[in-house]
From TrEMBL:
Primary residence: membrane
Compartment annotation: Membrane
PANTHER family membership: TRANSMEMBRANE PROTEIN 181
InterPro entries on file: TMEM181, WLS-like_TM
Highest taxon of source: Eukaryota
Domain Wntless-like transmembrane per the UniProt entry, residue ranges: 207-447
Transmembrane segments: 20-42, 213-233, 273-301, 313-334, 354-373, 394-416, 422-444
Key words of the record: Membrane, Transmembrane, Transmembrane helix
Membrane topology: Multi-pass membrane protein
Name this polypeptide is given: Wntless-like transmembrane domain-containing protein
């Protein structure tokens, strides 16, 4: 206390999170939920990601169970035969193509379940020339891309006219507008069960790509707007006075802008693995930083300012999330760039995938235990936070719900395949942007002062007596709490 009777402290900037009313919390969460529902509704009405065309190898006029002279195609069950497929013409916005297949079952074998194995000899060519139907293709004029032997399991369920769909190949980047594929069967044990072989050629549609392009552009602008508003609201506060939460929220908003992928249009202009790597790095950084952000926010609630700004506070948490970043990025790049030609190989047979998956699972378990411990400790010590205690509880419950839902969306996106489901993929982008909007609002500076806290600052002094005021820092690991010591100065 100085001679003028003013008490100087080094407390951090008060945030809206600690002063917002219950009604304010309720309205903010309602707005968040409404925005997510609107985004989901728009996503459900988005163009379908995939356009699919089915090609019969037999090309028979009817559902004949036997290949005959009236069929205009090729019977690939005859090992001496091969079929030539032309895929395209692809445009600049057609991002990825797939080739799948399934067998029709013979009508007499409809009620029989069967499992078999088939091997394809697969040759892929690229060209810029579109061939007319039934035109003979000169292989010498084509660019040979790759030649493989593909092994695939065939499962034919009972009481069905069709076998399950099997995977043949995919092209992540379309370097040529036209692809020519030569296929022949070199080994099979399903001849007595199946009949016609149907190919399914799929590619990401132009309409969906353009829709996603504008969708991402909207949220790039949205995240930039949130960042600018947040910085403008804190413009009058010196950066050294910014709170722990304010500093990290700015970093989170910066990563959010990159998560919305400003480089997305370049994927169509330059078809190469560089942008695939960049996107994987950005996705991984944002996911791991969001986990780091949530962890330090709850850990900091029960830490004094001196501890929450020390390297010892951030180092173990950063190390955990850094290890997660390395393993998740390795998993992304390994699975996105590797063309899996054998569906018979499951994850348990891939040694590298097993090691990476076990490492990620182990680190996630450690993270979840750490986060749950931090949340429980924060809830158990809300009394030390005074009137802000219930706000911390509400915020904690909201954060747990958000994390669980966000993880569910991420799992759906990654395990359902690349843009297989437009609603899930687009809603995930909107969801994380609206969540960061909520954080931006909650961590805005607030000038509202709690009445109880204001009354506690008033110290009545006796004119005939001088007092010495000593404030000791609170450290829940080393002391029993904040101590204010007032001693008589007897002179």
């Amino acid at each position: 206390m100085n001679n003028s009777g003013v008490l100087n402290t080094n407390k951090e900037q008060r945030l809206l999170l600690t002063t917002i009313s219950k009604i304010g919390f309720f309205l903010l969460f309602i707005v968040f939920a409404v925005l997510v529902v609107i985004a989901l509704f728009v996503s459900l009405n988005a163009p379908k990601p995939w356009s699919t065309n089915e090609i019969s190898s037999w090309k028979c006029a009817g559902d004949d169970a036997q290949f005959n002279q009236n069929c205009g195609g090729v019977n690939l069950l005859d090992k001496s035969k091969k079929i030539t497929l032309q895929l395209g013409a692809y445009e600049i916005f057609n991002q990825e193509s797939r080739l799948e297949y399934y067998f029709n079952k013979k009508s007499s074998k409809k009620d029989i379940a069967f499992d078999g194995l088939v091997k394809f000899r697969y040759t892929l060519y690229g060209t810029n020339v579109l061939n007319q139907p039934n035109q003979k293709v000169e292989v010498s004029s084509l660019k040979l891309i790759e030649e493989k032997t593909i092994e695939s399991k065939v499962h034919c369920p009972a009481r069905s006219n069709k076998c399950d769909v099997g995977y043949i190949s995919s092209e992540l980047y379309l370097d040529y507008p036209i692809y020519i594929i030569e296929l022949s069967i070199i080994n099979e044990n399903v001849k007595d069960i199946v009949s016609d072989l149907i190919f399914k050629a799929s590619y990401v549609s132009t309409f969906y790509t353009i829709f996603e392009l504008f969708w991402r552009l909207i949220f790039i602008l949205f995240s930039c707007l949130c960042t600018c508003i947040y910085l403008w609201a804190n413009r009058s506060i010196p950066q050294e006075k910014w709170s722990h939460e304010q500093k990290w929220t700015v970093v989170l908003l910066t990563f959010l802008i990159w998560e919305n992928n400003p480089l997305y249009p370049y994927e169509f202009l330059m078809d190469n693995a560089f942008y695939l790597f960049v996107n994987s790095v950005i996705d991984t950084i944002f996911i791991c930083f969001l986990m780091f952000y949530v962890l330090i926010m709850f850990d900091a609630l029960r830490k004094p300012i001196r501890q929450r700004t020390s390297i010892r506070f951030y180092l173990p948490r950063g190390l955990l999330c850094g290890l997660l970043f390395s393993l998740i990025l390795a998993s992304f790049m390994y699975n996105k760039t590797r063309k899996i030609y054998s569906p018979t190989m499951t994850g348990s047979h891939d040694v590298f995938n097993v090691i990476i998956s076990l490492g990620i699972m182990g680190l996630l378990i450690i993270y979840l235990f750490w986060l749950i411990f931090s949340i429980i400790r924060s809830f158990s010590e809300v009394r030390k936070l005074g009137s802000a205690g219930y706000r911390v509880q509400v915020y904690g419950i909201f954060t747990i719900f958000i994390l669980l839902f966000y993880i569910s969306l991420l799992l759906s996106v990654f395990f359902m395949g690349y843009r297989n489901n437009a609603a899930v993929s687009l809603t995930t982008i909107a969801f994380v942007n609206f969540y960061c909007m909520v954080l931006t609002i909650l961590y805005l500076p607030s000038n509202v002062v709690d009445q109880k806290e204001e009354r506690a600052k008033i110290v009545k002094l006796d004119d005939d007596e001088a007092l010495e005021l000593k404030v000791e820092d609170y450290d829940d690991e080393e002391s029993h709490g904040d101590e204010v010591v007032i001693a008589d100065d007897e002179n």
